[in-house]
Amino acid sequence: MKPKVKIHKRRRRRKKVYTGRETRWDFMQHWTVIRKWAVLNYELKSTADLEILMHLYSRQLFTLPECYEWAKFMSWDRHRFNRLLAEDWIHVWRTRSLGESAMYELTHKAKKMITSVYKKMTGLEPIPESSRRNKAFRKNAPFAQKTLANAIRSFNQEHKQHLSLVLDKDEFPQ
């Protein structure tokens, strides 16, 4: 007598089709690369300096207590405001007088830097790759800066692809 052999049919697994949603706002995807580029090339002491300048950018005028209120969320540096004032990122708009506190505003240098960062984040301009305009591309750059240079190259590649797609659709933001 023959033993019964069960033949099992292999079931085909259904491939799951993933339909991801199209992301409309993805400018924070490259924030790390842009942030490190800005800190390096504008010679800021830390990323907290960049973040506080970006916060103050939305305000035309501010007082010292308002700046310290925002600085509570950053890494602690009690000399940050005075250093930014000395390095010409912030300047005095109105000196202190009777009944009025001193008012400050960002300098032209700070406003240009933050505008440049925003343009890079929204994809309106690439990060420069020349050694004259970007310290990460210098021949004697340390290893960390050379890895940043590689990340900048890939960012610019994506920027070129994204820009060509946007220009094909004629939906370029004004």
Describe this structure in words.
By secondary structure, the protein is mainly α. It has a single domain, classed as Winged helix-like DNA-binding domain superfamily/Winged helix DNA-binding domain (Arc Repressor Mutant, subunit A, Orthogonal Bundle), CATH 1.10.10.10. The chain is built from six helices and two strands; from the N terminus they run ααααββαα. β1 (90-94) and β2 (103-106) form a beta hairpin. The protein is elongated and about 110 Å long.
Q: Report the CATH architecture.
A: Orthogonal Bundle
Helix content: 40-55%
Could you tell me how far the N terminus lies from the C terminus, measured between alpha carbons in angstroms? 84 Å
Q: Any idea of the CATH class?
A: Mainly Alpha
Fourth CATH level, the homologous superfamily? Winged helix-like DNA-binding domain superfamily/Winged helix DNA-binding domain
Q: Round the mean pLDDT to the nearest integer and report it.
A: 87
Order of helices and strands: HHHHEEHH
CATH topology label? Arc Repressor Mutant, subunit A
Global outline:
elongated
* Strand order in the largest sheet: 1-2
Residue ranges: pLDDT <50 for 5 or more in a row? none
Give the helix/strand class.
mainly alpha
> Oligomeric state of the chains?
single chain
Largest sheet: 2 strands, antiparallel
Beta strand count? 2
Percent of residues in beta strands: 5-15%
Query: How many helix segments?
Result: 6
Radius of gyration: 25 Å
Number of domains: 1
